[in-house]
Write a structure and sequence with these properties.
Blueprint lengths: L1 H4 L6 H8 L3 H8 L2 H23 L5 H18 L1 H14 L6 H22 L9 H20 L5 H17 L7 H16 L5 H10 L5
Helix pairs in contact: 2-3, 4-5, 4-6, 4-7, 5-6, 5-7, 5-9, 7-8, 8-9, 9-10, 9-11
């Protein structure tokens, strides 16, 4: 319904009719429409979490940190027809006062925190900050890039480049000597993409397709 008609047509009555339920039953199961939107977002995050476990095992925690960014953006890109109106509605409807936006932030930050904590235990990152606090900082950078993409100021490749730049800036401050050169190299590559005076869609899209990583 979202991909075909947009969020404006996603009414409780239309959704109940499509699901073969009464409106009362739908309210009893989920609550208001914003609760259904929240459930869709949670479901999407669950799928991203499953992909991380499959594609980026914790034996390479720095790569896992990167994968949290790239897998989430890939998921959005692959189903943009649903994610763009859904996330736009999510940003408007999930009031911080009700804790929904904080819930999404906690889940996203928690994904990074797991990898950061493992990297600290392996001596790749210095244990100078709380992993969850650093995860929140990385998420804020991702969120800023996301809103730029949502408003049309970035294409998906630019979204990824800006979110990864924020990730590596955050990690650089506590990086051990064994991983610092790789992070600095990746920052240089991303900075060249982000500060180029010409449209960098071709180069950025090529990097996105190749799935380049810190080595």
């Amino acid at each position: 319904m979202i991909t075909q008609h947009g969020m404006a047509r996603l009414t409780m009555r239309a959704l109940a009719r499509e699901a073969g339920l009464s409106v009362t039953t739908l309210y009893n199961l989920f609550g208001a429409r914003e609760e259904i939107v929240a459930a869709l977002v949670d479901d999407a995050i669950d799928h991203m979490d499953e992909a991380l476990v499959r594609e980026a095992p914790l034996d390479d925690p720095i790569e896992r940190c990167r994968a949290v960014v790239t897998v989430s953006i890939r998921s959005i890109h692959e189903d943009e027809a649903m994610f763009r109106p859904l996330m736009s509605a999510n940003s408007r409807e999930l009031s911080p006062a009700r804790g929904r936006s904080r819930h999404v932030s906690r889940r996203a930050a928690g994904m990074q925190a797991v990898a950061i904590e493992e990297a600290m235990s392996m001596g790749l990152l210095k244990p100078l900050v709380d992993p969850l606090a650093l995860g929140r900082q990385i998420y804020h950078g991702w969120e800023h890039a996301f809103f730029q993409w949502l408003s049309g100021r970035l294409d998906v490749a630019g979204f990824e480049a800006r979110a990864l730049y924020g990730l590596y800036i955050a990690l650089l401050g506590i990086a051990n000597e064994s991983v610092r050169p790789g992070i600095e190299l990746e920052l240089g590559r991303l900075e060249a993409l982000l500060t180029s005076t010409s449209p960098s869609k071709t180069a950025a899209t090529s990097a996105l397709t190749r799935g380049e990583r810190v080595r």
